[in-house]
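Handover notes (outgoing to incoming on-call)

Open items:
1. Acyl-[acyl-carrier-protein] desaturase: sequence verified, structure written out, both below. Nothing else pending on this one.
2. Nothing else urgent.
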Amino acid sequence: MALRTNFQPKLSPFLSNPVKKDPRSPLVSVASTVRSSNRVDSSKKLFTPPREVHVQVTHSLPPQKIEIFKSLEDWAENNLLALLKPVHTNWQPQDFLPEPSSEGFYDEVKDLRERTKEIPDDYFVCLVGDMITEEALPTYQTMLNTLDGVRDETGASLTSWAVWTRAWTAEENRHGDLLNKYLYLTGRVDMRQIEKTIQYLIGSGMDPRTENNPYLGFIYTSFQERATFISHGNTANHARQYGDLRLAQICGTIAADEKRHEAAYTKIVEKLFEVDPDDTMLAFADMMRKKISMPAHLMYDGRDDNLFGNFSAVAQRLGVYTAKDYADILEHLVGRWKLEGILGLSGEGKRAQDFVCTLAPRIRRLEERAESRKTKRAEMMPFSWIFDRKVQL
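Acyl-[acyl-carrier-protein] desaturase structure tokens:
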């Protein structure tokens, strides 16, 4: 999951994720993810994850709705598990890397480093950000296992939902492994800073605001899997333009995995629209009002308090993942689930339907206005991942 990267452009007011009052809670969040600027003794402190920016609503799924997911066990077995690939025939990271037992290993590494020598730093910022997002996989499995009615209750449960979550995690695990090893071999990046960022990110978790609710959770994963498909696909296109065809193949292969996983999660939501259209529509509108935060939005390297925002700005400028992509994904899901044609909704459900079906054009208009207000002065930012070399935001 890429599920690259919030991959939200800095100047897009619609896609920002401000601290605000949760409409279902009397409390107001007063915490911030911004860390103290006092760095005197911070390195001596035990790791403390950043404070959450939202009041956490938990277990919002009514008990009777859990029965829906129990009733879908056979459906999940036939429709989700069928999308998994057998381990013995699936690709593995080593298929794309120099073979360490080979006599030609050092020559292969030399060729790899030669291919990446002229690739620009801003591309490496995007690729590293995508890799770090993939490496935070433990957080994503944890998030799925918070969802009521579908979690893996024992760690080795044989329910279809639990089998899917573990097998999906196992397939996703290869993505970070492959990108990590490839980047290590290039010699172009500061692996220790990258490794620190991964540790911080896994320790910090994520705040998708899915409330232990599988309606919200599967809408989130449907959106995110498509976002990572787009991001990895675009890094593949860039690598091809820079002449590294092996890296293009790697990114494209990962993108294909994300596309297949997107198919699984969108199937789940499609089924929910079939069996419970009103509450599924309300859930979709709820997630879009909250705005989809990207899984690595708490990214930190020990130095840059706005690391994710800066990374996202580079990705936006290079076209790896943009505000347009955000609107396109929303529009795609509305069409994929045929939301405009759903009938028989309650009054609240119809209002939610109107909201989600008209949202993408509004996002685009707001982004166009934000783009028109951008200053032309190029801002340069150092990234610890590339030895503090500066790239344009």
